[in-house]
Write a structure and sequence with these properties.
The mean pLDDT is about 95. The protein is α/β, with parallel strands linked by helices and about 280 residues long. The chain has helices at about 30-40, 50-60, 80-90, 105-110, 125-140, 150-165, 175-185, 200-210, 230-235, 250-275, and strands at about 5, 10, 20-25, 45-50, 70, 95-100, 115-120, 145, 165-170, 185-195, 220-225, 240-245. The strands form 3 sheets. The protein has a 5-stranded parallel sheet with strand order 4-3-5-6-7, sandwiched between helices. A 5-stranded parallel sheet has the order 9-8-10-11-12, with helices on both faces. Helix 8 links the parallel strand 10 and strand 11. It comes from Agrobacterium bohemicum. It holds the Pfam family Response_reg. This is Two-component system response regulator. Keywords: Phosphoprotein, Transcription, Transcription regulation.
Length: about 280
């Protein structure tokens, strides 16, 4: 079944195979809603764990790898976040679904490198959670190229994207980026720094556009400069988006998603036009 998510994500309906999802949640209402929504829209089943003991037993009774966990911060038997600690220690990608949230909570969650967090504070919460699950399970279909001469910056962006399940390639200069693009036709997004020693972000973008159009590949520029005119110059050079550092994780992920959603929708429209013409 195809569906268009709240934030614009388009799911093609390709079935998810060998996917094991644990749902650590003690509310009967939410377990039923989540289980029903994931089954209806994505064809996914979940293993429900209503307390910390059940979560441990659920993990230990099967040798099958857990693809993703959805967890409340506080579970019976783990009122101080022990369930989340348990999942993180097992290196299980986890989406937090919680009603307990403030700035300190956010900082702790990001430190633990959870995939995402969804708040139970609105009627769309379960739909947002479903979309987050779908994004994680489909992000590996996208190949992202990071271009930055700073090893620290490359490592930070790479870590963020891999946490969200994207495939990532790295280039420390513009020439290497162009070579990788030439040899990897499946790269669908480039995240490039502006200030680089050999080819700056503007020139790299212009050269990329001679190879790949915006309907084939999206480009996000990033910079630590305080010059706000960089954004206009970058977009004029053929970029699709621009972000000034420092940016927060949620903003970065949102911009990445928006650009890839646009690309998927453009490609789907082109395929539809071809079918109609045929």
């Amino acid at each position: 079944m195809n569906f268009l998510g709240i934030t614009g994500m388009q799911y093609s309906g390709v079935p998810f195979r060998d996917t094991r999802i644990l749902l650590a949640e003690d509310s009967n209402v939410f377990t039923q809603m989540i289980g029903s929504r994931l089954k209806e829209l994505l064809g996914l089943s979940v293993e429900v764990c209503r307390n910390f003991e059940e979560l441990q037993e659920c993990y230990e009774r099967s040798s099958e790898e857990v693809t993703l966990a959805i967890s409340n911060i506080n579970l019976p038997g783990a009122e101080n976040g022990e369930a989340l600690e348990y999942l993180v220690d097992l290196s299980i990608p986890t989406i937090v679904f919680t009603s307990t949230f403030h700035e300190d909570t956010r900082e702790k969650l990001l430190t633990k490198e959870v995939v995402d967090y969804i708040l139970k504070d609105n009627v769309f919460a379960v739909d947002m959670l479903t979309e987050s699950v779908c994004r994680f399970l489909t992000n590996h279909r996208h190949h992202v190229l990071i271009v930055d001469d700073s090893p620290t910056a490359r490592a930070l962006l790479s870590s963020r994207l891999k946490r969200y399940n994207f495939r990532v390639s790295l280039a420390d200069n513009g020439a290497k980026a162009l070579e990788l693009l030439k040899n990897n036709a499946d790269i669908s997004l480039v995240v490039t720094d502006y200030n680089m020693p050999d080819i700056d972000g503007f020139e790299l973008t212009r050269r990329i556009r001679t190879m790949r159009g915006s309907h084939e590949l999206r480009i996000i520029g990033v910079s630590s400069s305080t010059n706000r005119l960089l954004s206009a110059r970058f977009l004029k050079a053929g970029g699709n988006d621009f972000m000034l550092r420092p940016f927060i994780d949620e903003e970065f992920y949102c911009r990445v998603n928006q650009n890839l959603d646009t690309l998927v929708q453009i490609q789907a429209a082109k395929m539809h036009s071809k079918k109609v013409a045929a």
